[in-house]
C-alpha cells in the first residue's frame, strides 16, 4: 500500500480536483488529503476508501492495486464453477487496517455479484474480498456451497463447537449438513453509498 498516496494524488489530478474539493466530497479536511497523498497517514478505513473511489469516480480496486497490475473484480454467480477456478486470477493482499476485526492472513480475491445475481448480505455493486478456504477460523460471512448452489451465510459455532449457518434477516440457525461446504471467508466488504 506504499503506492496508495501517489495513486490518490494521480486520480485526484485526473479528476481535475484540488485537495479542498476532494476533501469536501469525501468528508475530511484538505490537510487529511495531503497526509494521505504524502503517506503520512497510512491507515485509511474502508468507509473512507469507498468514499474516495466515489469522489474520484473510479473503481475501488484501482485504489487498492497498482495501475500496471490492475485486475477487475471477478463476477460471483450462484452456480458453479467458482470464478477463480481457471487459475488465471491474481490474488491481492489486504493490509490489516483495511479489514478491522478480521484475523486472516491469506491472500484474497476481489469479487462482486454478477449482474442479475442475488446473494444474502450483498447488494448489486458491492465489492468483497474473499479468502478461498474450506476451513472455519472465526465467525463471520462465508461463501458456501449448499447442495450445489453458492450462497453467503453467517457462520459461527454452536454451544458444542458445531458449525451453524444463518441467512440474512433470519434468527434461525441452520445446523451443518453434508450438503454444506465452506468455499471462502469474506474478509472485506465495501458498499457504494450515494453522495
UniProtKB/TrEMBL annotation:
SMART domains given in the database record: HTH_XRE
Cited PROSITE patterns: HTH_CROC1 (PS50943)
Gene3D superfamilies, per database record: lambda repressor-like DNA-binding domains
Protein name (Swiss-Prot/TrEMBL): Helix-turn-helix domain-containing protein
HTH cro/C1-type domain sequence ranges: 8-63
Cited Pfam families: HTH_3
Organism ancestry: Bacteria, Pseudomonadati, Pseudomonadota, Gammaproteobacteria, Oceanospirillales
SUPFAM superfamilies from the UniProt entry: lambda repressor-like DNA-binding domains
Domain of life: Bacteria
